[in-house]
Amino acid sequence: MSTAEPPPVVDAMSPDGSKTMRRDTRRALAGEPLPAALAEGDGEGDASLTGASLALMQKLKTRTAVIGVIGLGYVGLPACIGIVGAGMRCFGFDIDSSKIASLTAGRSYLRHIGLDELTEAGRRKDFVATDDFSRLTECDALLITVPTPLDGHQQPDLSFVVQTCRTVSEHLRPGMLVVLESTSYPGTTTEVMIPILEGSGLKAGSDFYAGFSPEREDPGNSEFPVGAIPKVVAGSGPVAGRLVEALYRATHATVVVASSPEVAEASKLLENIFRSVNIALVNELKLLFMKMNIDIWEVIEAARTKPFGFMPFYPGPGLGGHCIPIDPFYLSWKAREYGQPTRFIELAGEINRMMPGVVIAGAAHALNEHSRSVRGARILLLGLAYKPDIDDDRESPSYPVMRMLAEMGADVSFNDPFVSVVPPKREYPEFEGLCSSPVSADYDLLILMTAHSEYRSIEYGCLGVPIVDTRNVVPRDIPGVFRC
After folding, report:
1. 376-388: per-residue pLDDT in tens?
2. How many Cβ atoms sit within 10 Å of the Cβ of residue 284?
């Protein structure tokens, strides 16, 4: 057994009750190299591996394995960067030929992600972006990072996962490791992915290996690089578990091994349900406190001074991003199979989905205060991205607000320093191609939807335009601001 520093232990509590950070996570945040034992594993237990699994383990430990990433979006692209950063060769697969062309030319289609490392790896032939899925056979391990949205009836839509698994099954070879990273309900790896892959004629656990590792991507968060975020992993069986662990030890400072794919799948849902429920709580309290003439943001700031037993969450105009508005409903859907109601999940979703309507009511109130109606009003939304200082507009609450205002007869525009034009949207095709407009006094109402840093420096008082502030950004001494 190696005498190097041992692998990380679970989070501990410091004497003052705050959570201490793992040694290896601190190293990753500081940009320090990982000890060899953490980066490669200590070799203990490799005697239980034989044949193809032993060969793959040696490739993973020596970082000579070739890793394929299927789906080059907000999760897959950072995964590719982490893989080449760990010194392994990587194939990036996507059906979108425009993404392949951009990556090949060294251009990033995600503003917050730089491509210097991938571009340099491409010059060394250590990274290849391709839409040729026959090249899956050149990979030793595959990561599936495709979308898992909801359909029009708020039911899980696994069509991207299913189609990807079918494609992989056509090119699956003995000894390959396949890991699903797309968020889904417990049982997806075992009940959906593995049976499709076994349609190739190969058997999971003996001919190929399967596992699950939920993504924990936070777009635009420079405080926690992807490799510094603890990575939960699980394999379908002990051998697969060892291989999945070895794969992610190369790219992540801390690897947390779950006992089964179902546990790992459930852990991701718990993370996002926790946030959804707490955001719904403060959104509901916002509605109450508005009627009581109490400032919800001041209440939260007072409460957060408690040094234990409290975590601040903030209200807003609705949920955005791919995780919180969607993932909880994967579990509530699965719960029906067991006859178990998930009332907190459903209620939180109901409250959070109400929030765009609250913004509309606030807009109507603000206009009424200035003897205007929504019909015919020129309204500018500040912010299309769902979170500050990035270009990610997935599930942004700005879209339903824009639609409702337009249906009420308003002339609606938007401004966003990170989103210059509305991309194709399946749910909101009427806004495709709409360009960002400058902030000016030529509007009857401004609605601040996203707390971009740039919006904090605007001289709102000089504009002389009524403002609906959903993010508590506009200074308190500015008159004519309605907070909702």
Report:
1. 999 999 999 999 9
2. 16
